[in-house]
Amino acid sequence: MRKIIHIDMDAFYASVEQRDDPGLRGLPVAVGGARERGVVAAASYEARRYGVRSAMPSVTARRKCPELIFVKPRFEVYRAISRQIREVFARYTPLIEPLSLDEAYLDVTENLKGLPSATHIAQEIRAAIRAETGLTASAGVSYNKFLAKLASDQRKPDGLFVITPAQGPAFVEDLPVGRFHGVGPATTAKMQGLGLHSGRDLRGCSLAFLQAHFGKAGPHYYWISRGIDRRPVKPDRVRKSLGAENTFFEDLYTPQDLRAALQPILDKVWKHCDQAGLRGRTVTLKVKYADFRQITRSRTLLQPVASRAELEAVSFALLSALLPVPKGVRLLGVTLSSLLTPAEDTDREGLLLL
């Protein structure tokens, strides 16, 4: 039986801004762009009371909360604080699986301090984060990842919740399917269309039924509806892609404007590649038109993209195939996937030669 902790920082980006600017404390704050086509990256709890949420268009957020204060994101600051928080985690276990800058799974079944209680470890970690960063974190403690993540949402912000092995199956039974981690709006609607509204409804389905309707995800739903999740905490979690995108203040139409708009996006993607020590074989161009219709075009190369100039050439070729654009373009994005480290790429070349 594992002992898993899920740590989730409370309104992380917004809380950092309120910490660093006392004038923002107690006020509705959104981190993101205030312009017409901006998007909310994070919202303080004061803003959330008005219905402001992350990924919400800034125009909608402003309509919900006219007093909303927009702050430009400072990702370098957030990354530095995230590293500080992970140093706290590392005092207890090497088994840390980051999900993002502000959340992670920890396996403390066998921990570096020899503490028998995962709940006590979670309390210590939350206290250390508060003392060393001035920020609050919520924690969920359980015997698997699925339940630990559910638990961390129960008493936010600044809360701790435990789901024991005896409580797990019953806890899942009463849970709406939309609360299951990984079940998005489309899957929720599909489940409800099949008469599946809760964990209890899912548990009443056979494995064959769930596989028939949900494919590879079917077995996952079958087991988690019973409170069972055998996924281990993976400290060496492999990143699947690196990307960047930008939404423009005005729609773009000409090839010159589109290529110019791609330049800072390509710079950002290549910088991410260098920082992560990764190279990718598949380049994907994302285009969103003024009517919100979105398309992607990809090209997979025999060898990983070797330079920023090659990334630009492939991206421009993908873009050229879409010209002239039928409507104005409001967003462009570039993603690199099929990622390899330089060492893996060398090993792959050797195999190809053999």
UniProtKB/TrEMBL annotation:
UniProt site positions, description: Substrate discrimination: Y13
Entry binding sites for Mg(2+): D8, D102
Co-factor: note: Binds 2 magnesium ions per subunit.
SUPFAM superfamilies the UniProt entry points to: DNA/RNA polymerases, Lesion bypass DNA polymerase (Y-family), little finger domain
Protein name as it appears in the record: DNA polymerase IV
Function recorded in the entry: Poorly processive, error-prone DNA polymerase involved in untargeted mutagenesis. Copies undamaged DNA at stalled replication forks, which arise in vivo from mismatched or misaligned primer ends. These misaligned primers can be extended by PolIV. Exhibits no 3'-5' exonuclease (proofreading) activity. May be involved in translesional synthesis, in conjunction with the beta clamp from PolIII.
Top-level EC class: transferase
Keyword terms, alphabetized: Cytoplasm, DNA damage, DNA repair, DNA replication, DNA-binding, DNA-directed DNA polymerase, Magnesium, Metal-binding, Mutator protein, Nucleotidyltransferase, Transferase
Annotated Pfam families: IMS, IMS_C, IMS_HHH_1
EC number: 2.7.7.7
Catalyses which reaction(s): DNA(n) + a 2'-deoxyribonucleoside 5'-triphosphate = DNA(n+1) + diphosphate
CDD domains in alphabetical order: PolY_Pol_IV_kappa
NCBIfam families, alphabetized: PRK02406.1
Record's subunit section: Monomer.
Active site: E103
